[in-house]
Amino acid sequence: MSGKQLTALVIIFLYMVLTVVVGLVSSKMKQKKAAKKQSNEDFLMAGKSLGPIILACTLFAANTGGASTTGIATNVGTQGLSASWYVIAAGIGFVLVSFIAPFFRRAQASTVPQIINMRYGKPAHIVTAFTSIAALFMATGSQIIATSTIINTVTGMDFETTAVVVTAVVIAYTMVGGFASVAAANMMHVGFITIGMTIAMIFMVNSDTVGGFSNLMATAKTMTDAEGQNMDLLSMTKVGLPAILGYVAMYCTTFPTGQEIVQTYCSAKDGKSAKVGSVIAGLLSAAYAIVPALIGLMAFTFIDGFAADKALHKNALAAATMEFAPAIIAGIVLSSVVAATISSASGNMIGTATLFTNDVFRPYMNKGEKNDTKEIWISRAVMVLAGCVGLAVALSGSNIISIMMSAFALRSAGPFAAFICGLFYKKVTKNAGFLSIVFGTAVAAIWIYALKTPFGLNAAIPASLVAFIVIFLVSAVEGKKGVAPAPELVLEDN
């Protein structure tokens, strides 16, 4: 192991320790301030106390994981700078979803399936709960992949061993601190991953090898692949309009239905904080998107043989950082990315635990009785399970962004139409909501796994269209037959 690798590894280790310490101290302080026994809601939702800045940072951190960092950098090889649309679209999604964000806080719920249950009943509740849990298993796996590939690149440790160690660390960190711990640590992560990575990118661009922005752009423009074809690395449209529209649609459907995001909105101290925090997160995401793309561009342009050898493409961000950044800066950047991916994995695990305890254990296994002590231990057990399943996903060797997009589409396409109509369409019926969830989810699965995502169009678009058609059609037919609309949601005033 070289001196640079050792320095980076030490910094990564120290940063991870600092993350755990900050998170645990914050969690203990919040418990002490409350001066009462910690409830499961406090453990999983920070006592619904997040202001707009912390909420914005938590939203940004929850969405800035492996796919938004290492995934973008690596995809520059096939999509050019247009790979950054994956995160730009997330920024657009946060801004658009801000208009309905206050409804999450006002819905007096902790999960998406709970909101679905309030309007459509038990069958819709069960389907939404299990699809959401399955999606979070997949999302946890993608973060483990990202974290493990960074450490693998830095140390040379084999990927499988690294993935096991990472999973164990994430499980321990999440189980001990809960959501308050994750939210506090996210403030630190956001600063390092935005400011730190931007500063590092500037250092890397101005290294002797790269020679500045103008040389980077000029060289990238001439890059060819193994077959001698121009790679078009500077293109902002190479990913294609269907993919760009699909990204935006995916985020607009997944943010209102994704537990790790909805849980953050529900943890706001009030509706205004949820809205303002969402807008801030959107602006931050859109501005940040180009940074990992430029780092990936350097890897494909200036690392000898990188563009031609697909075996090297596993983590372009880590490869470029280790190649062009000074040792200390490389360590800080990679540690912040590792911390961000761990934080995203933790958020996914907490989301899974919240879903299971609120939507499976309490209503169906504990006969509707709330028992905080028991639920906290159940939550921790589910976190362990989520980590283990995520590890299995990570070891499958799939592409990070592909995993995330499949997870997002499967969990969101069906519930999105039911959720929106549940809020704003008074004539919607219970059967209409349930059938829209079933048909939307089925179309998404067929689009991804049977049709292999034709035209490059994200499954969220066709699946959501089908779900909306079903919900309006069934509601209209049942309305004519005299079927009463589903009971309306009761929202808090604030």
Helical amount? over 70%
Overall pLDDT metric: 84
Number of DSSP E strands: 0
**Measured distance between first and last alpha carbons:** 57 Å
CATH class reads Mainly Alpha
Please work out how many helical segments DSSP would assign: 20
Please, how many domains?
A: 1
Explain the layout of strands and helices.
Layout: H1 3-34, H2 40-45, H3 52-63, H4 67-79, H5 85-97, H6 101-106, H7 112-120, H8 122-155, H9 159-205, H10 213-221, H11 241-254, H12 259-266, H13 271-288, H14 290-302, H15 316-324, H16 327-365, H17 372-394, H18 400-424, H19 430-450, H20 460-480
Helix pairs in contact: 1-9, 1-16, 3-9, 3-12, 3-13, 4-8, 4-14, 5-11, 5-13, 7-8, 7-18, 8-9, 8-15, 8-16, 8-17, 8-18, 8-19, 9-14, 9-16, 9-17, 11-18, 14-15, 15-16, 16-17, 18-19, 18-20, 19-20
